[in-house]
Structures are given as structure tokens and as C-alpha cells.
Amino acid sequence: MDSAPSLTAIILTYNEELHIKRCIGSLRPVASRIYVVDSFSTDATLEIARREGAEAVQRKFKNQADQFQWALDNLPITTDWIMRIDADEYVSAELATSMARIIPRAPASVTGFYVDRLVVFLGRPIRHGGFYPMRVLKIWRTGLGRVEQRWIDEYCVVKQGLVDYCPGDLIDENLRDLTWWTDKHNKYSSRRMIDLLDRDLKLGLSQHALSGTASRRQVIYHTIKTNIYPTLPPYFRAFAYYLYRYVFRLGFLDGQQGLVFCFLQAFWNLFLVDAKLYEARRMIAGTGVDSFIKHLQDTQGLDLRPLRLENESRRSA
Predict the structure, then answer these.
(1) Which of 10, 101, 132, 291 is deepest in the core (most CB within 10 A)?
(2) Alpha carbon distance 189, 196 (integer Å)
(3) Which structural domains are found in the chain, ordered by start?
(4) Which H or E run contains 91?
């Protein structure tokens, strides 16, 4: 394999002792520098990360988009390229080989690279249901990448230039149990509810536009999610999305794991979002927006007010 590209990998962590060694180990052939941005883990995450050769900093967590953009703006990155990777993801051997070969030889016109993200759920790769290949922008030239400021499903864009492709899979395989997984997605449903509610009521809680180049799949998904999905009847749209994933996109071919994954991802989670939207609108009608925002901050620890004020200030500037 060729020598590692001039690339800094950035990993956001909170209590990731189960995954961080695997992630860092997979990055060694392709990253000349690895940063862990930790949200004050209470386990051995930082000890393991530093032992494995990563540099670590700590910062209070607000959401993924805010944390990663902070990393882009504040870490002393001196390499030519940056890669975004989650702690429960790892670079496959095929992807490592293509990155080491392609990235150092990229012409100046190329400013980013897509990779294929493969989810492994309950021990099985999910290759159907439209979930694979999930081509995402994960690598870009230093100084040219930005992150859309949303509460969930944010994506990265590059400001200019062409985006190429590195063959091979970035594997997303979380080793925790299903109880942890459903708890995480219950929290995600609250964040998704905030984004949908913000589009209706213009509360200034998210940034909904970011110019630049993202993956074609991300742009299509974003367009459907923002312009089509919100116009469909609540609750029905969750069921329709599940049928689309499981039946029309052949999610059933992934066996029992495919059934559970499609049901929880495409039906249970989105149905819960609609139920939380109904609850939120009732609360806002009864006690007002400020009371509702305070409720979210107090009960779920979501730091909503600063972003709202930032967006209001940006609009008035």
C-alpha cells in the first residue's frame, strides 16, 4: 500500500471505549493525523484514543453538526485533506487501499471524495432497502468543507471544485445492543421533530440552506425529506416510507435483520416523530414557543436557545 495521504481524520466521541480502538486502527494506513473531539466521556475513551496515537481535545456537546464545525474551525489542522468519521465506523481494507492510491494523486480541481457507507445491523450488512450503497461526502481539502447546521441528518458540502469517488466501504457497525440503539433513536426522533417543526413555524432553530457540492444521493434525499415528506399526512407517511424501504426497495432480502432495521428506522422512528410533533404543537398552542423550548432544554438537555439567537442575528444583519 502507498504511504498515508496528508490527511487529518476527525472523530467525535462520547463514551466510545467499545469502538474507538477499531476506528483508529483502521485509519492508520490513510491518516497522517487523527483528532478525537470528546464530549467529556466518563469511560476510557480518551485513554484508549491517546494510547492508539490520536490527539484529543474536549468540548461540551450541542449536536453533531455544531461539534464538527467547531472542529473544522478551531483544530490546528496542517494536512492537505480532512476526513469525517464516526467512532463506530471503520475504514475497510478496500477503501484504505483506494484512499492511499487516489487521494495523493488527486488533481487540484478535485476538492472532495465520496465513499460508500455500509451499515451492519445485528451482525448483518444491510445491502437492500435503498440503504446501500449510501454514498456520502467524507473527505475534502482543508478549508473547503462545511457542515449544515441541523439537529439531525446534517451533511457536509465543499465550497468549490469537483468531488471524486474512492471505491470501498466505510463500515458503520455499532456493537452495542438493541436497547441502546432504540434509546439513541428515540433521542434522534426529538431532534428530527425539532427540524420539521422549525420548517413550519420558522423558530430559527436550524440552518436549512448550505451552498456547495454534496453527494447526489444526499441532495435527492434532502429534497425529498424537506419538500415532499413534510407535505404528506402525518403517521401515514411513516407507514408509506416503511413500505417503500421494505417492499419496493427489497429490504426483505436482508432477512430478519432487514425486517427489524426497516421497521425501526423507517416506521417506528418516523411514527414517533409525528407523535412528538403533535405533542409539540399542543404545548406551543397552550403555553407558547418559549415555554416549549425551555421544556426541551430542561427535559432533554438540548441547547436550543443559542442557535435560535444566532439565526435571528444573522437574518437581521
Answers:
(1) 10
(2) 10
(3) 7-173 (3.90.550.10), 178-316 (no CATH)
(4) strand 89-91
The strand pair at 145-147 and 33-38 is best described as unpaired
Asked if residues 57 and 50 have their Cβ atoms less than 8 Å apart, the reply is no
- Read out DSSP for 104-145? GG--TTEEEEEEEEEEEETTEE--STT-SSEEEEEEEETTTE
CA distance 251 to 249: 6
Nearest by Cα to 110 from 54, 37, 166: 166
- Centre a 10 Å sphere on the Cβ of residue 124 and count the other Cβ atoms it contains: 15
Q: Are 115 and 86 in contact (CB under 8 A)?
A: no
Task: Quick: pLDDT tens for 6-17.
Answer: 999 999 999 999
Q: Quick one: which of 116, 77, 75 has its CA closest to 99? A: 116
Q: What is the pTM of this model?
A: 0.88
Pairwise CA distance, residues 70 & 214, whole Å: 20
Mean per-residue pLDDT of the chain? 89
| Phi–psi pair at 227, nearest 5 degrees | -110, -25
Bond prior to 306 in cis (omega within 30° of 0): no
Element holding 146 (H helix, E strand): strand 145-147
Assign 208 to helix, strand or coil: coil
| Most distant pair of Cα atoms in the chain: their distance | 63
From CA 180, how far away is CA 177, in angstroms rounded? Answer: 6
Read off the pLDDT of residues 36-67 as tens digits, 9 standing for 90 and up.
999 999 999 999 999 999 999 999 998 899 99
Give the DSSP H or E segment for 158: strand 156-158
The model's pLDDT over 248-258, given as tens digits with 9 standing for 90+, comes to: 999 999 999 99
Q: Cell numbers of 309, please?
A: 439567537
Q: 3-class DSSP state for residue 222?
A: helix
